[in-house]
Amino acid sequence: MPELPEVETTRRGIAKHLYGQTIEQVIVRKRQLRWPIPNRLNQRLAGQPIAAIRRRAKYLILETPAGALIIHLGMSGSLRVVATDQAYEKHDHFVLNLVNSKSLRLRDPRRFGAVLWGGQHPDRHTLLKGLGPEPDDKAFNTDYLYRKTRKRRRAIRDVLLDGHIVAGIGNIYANEALFHAGIRPGRASGRISRPHCDKLVTAIKEVIRAAIRAGGSTLRDFQSPEGKPGYFQQTHYVYGRGGQPCRRCGQAIKTRALGGRRAFSCTNCQL
DNA sequence: AGGCCCTCCTGTAAGC
DNA sequence: TGCTTACAGGAGGGCC
């Protein structure tokens, strides 16, 4: 569910409650998420101060002197900080109680999320080590995307979803960025010219930056840790707008299945 | 090695 | 109204 902007919104929302705090207790209420939550997290983390909470792609990394906890929200995960004595909600699977009587809770109805032990070097974890650059990284530039797509037949939309090429982009922002760059989602990525790669890189950086500013997109499940919705979906040009008029030219937005996931485009504005 | 497909799970909404 | 079905923002893993 949550893509980079929603995960970053979550990070910012919980960070202010976590900085300088100490973990009192770890409670695993349902161990089987995408992978089983590791044993002994309570022994590892009880008494540990929270040194930082970072984001890499769609992963959140909670750092303590004893090691780092890696959290992924999957499709339906959300994190909130509430009073420890507040009743659990349905699907609250993982809990970090803090010494200040606050509680960080991971709620994840579909259980595609993950809680993993990252040790002293979470960025070397199997799931993180092969990730591509962040969209806002200087390393994610025209030359890089051009090079990565040469001789590739894959649809450009699917390339953007591949975290090993660029980190954190999901179906919403892939479709939105492609609209702004004027490229159809199904175009073979190897056939995209250098000027269009340039447009696309710029569009990705802008769309992601704007979405973070707006607090992400609220679709089915996502809300920020404060319970406020994200507002970016109000500025979607194509995603979720099948059949509706293009905001630029008025032609109906087309929806099509691409690799089992929907792709949205305006066939007039995008070539 | 690239690329395609399947899979995990529940909630929601559309369709009949 | 109520039952059934399709689909959903992720992404690793298996297979060709």
User: Beta-sheet strand percentage?
Assistant: 15-25%
Cα-to-Cα separation, first versus last residue: 28 Å
Number of E-type strands: 10
Helix content: 25-40%
Low-confidence stretches: none
Mean pLDDT equals 93
Spatial extent as radius of gyration: 20 Å
SSE ordering: HEHEEEEEEEHHHHHEE
Question: How are strands sequenced across the largest beta sheet?
Answer: 1-6-7-5
Indicate the structural class.
alpha+beta
In short:
This protein is of the alpha+beta class and 271 residues long. The protein is 25% helix and 21% strand.
Report on the architecture of this protein.
The protein has 271 residues and is α+β, with helices and mostly antiparallel strands. 25% of the residues lie in helices and 21% in strands. It is built from seven helices and ten strands. The chain has helices at residues 4-18, 41-45, 126-129, 142-149, 156-161, 171-181, 194-213; strands at residues 23-28, 52-56, 59-64, 67-72, 78-83, 92-98, 102-107, 114-119, 254-258, 261-265. The strands form three sheets. The chain has a four-stranded antiparallel beta sheet with strand order 1-6-7-5. Strand 2 and strand 3 form a beta hairpin. Helix 4 (142-149) crosses helix 7 and helix 6 (171-181) crosses helix 7 (194-213). The longest helix has 20 residues, at 194-213. The radius of gyration is 20 Å and the shape is elongated. The two termini are 28 Å apart. The model has no long low-confidence stretch (mean pLDDT 93). It binds a DNA duplex (16 and 16 nucleotides) through helix 6.
